[in-house]
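U., I forgot to send this yesterday:
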Amino acid sequence: MTIPDTDNVPLSSEDALRRAALFASGLLALRESPRFHELIGELCRTIDVPIAGVSVIDSGFCWLPVLHGADLDAVPLSESLCIGVVETQIPMAETDLTAKPQFADNRFVTGPLALRAYAAVPLRGVQDAKLGTIFIADQRVRPDFADRAVPRLERTALRILEEASAPHHMRRIGRTTVEGLEALIRRATRDGDDALVTAIDRVMRDVLPLTGVRGI
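Result:
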């Protein structure tokens, strides 16, 4: 997965730092790695759900680098079920989406997917950046989500973050990671945002040893 080129689109300091944290997390390259698909498949089997995945937030969209059980690449944040979890950083476990007014009219509830149950936990990056979620969903009402879903999702989230930041994974995506961070530093420098330049440079220094990239 590649974040779209939005160099000419206004980007707040918070969004720029979140994008830097996304590059540093290794989450953007999950689609090409079988290991992450295995972890999400294991999550589906353990909780007996047809749909599970990883979401990351950028450029007004919820991107889905790994998704089992549905054919989607991205969802506008205005339609996403996960945005509340990202914003509040509080896990969510809804046993019946139709029973909650804020979800009952969502197209993923009323449309062909006909979701009834949903649960998600937040993914955090460097400097506590709000990156996205690990989530599960079912077309059945799932009373057991209330007690069972969040602990399992939190364990899977830790495994995903550990695998994504492991040196073998970061070396594979090292050049893309570094180039993305450099582009953000150039943009912040151009905008005269010295605090953001410093923050992203700190992210770069932390992640650079893992990437195996030299001569930066």
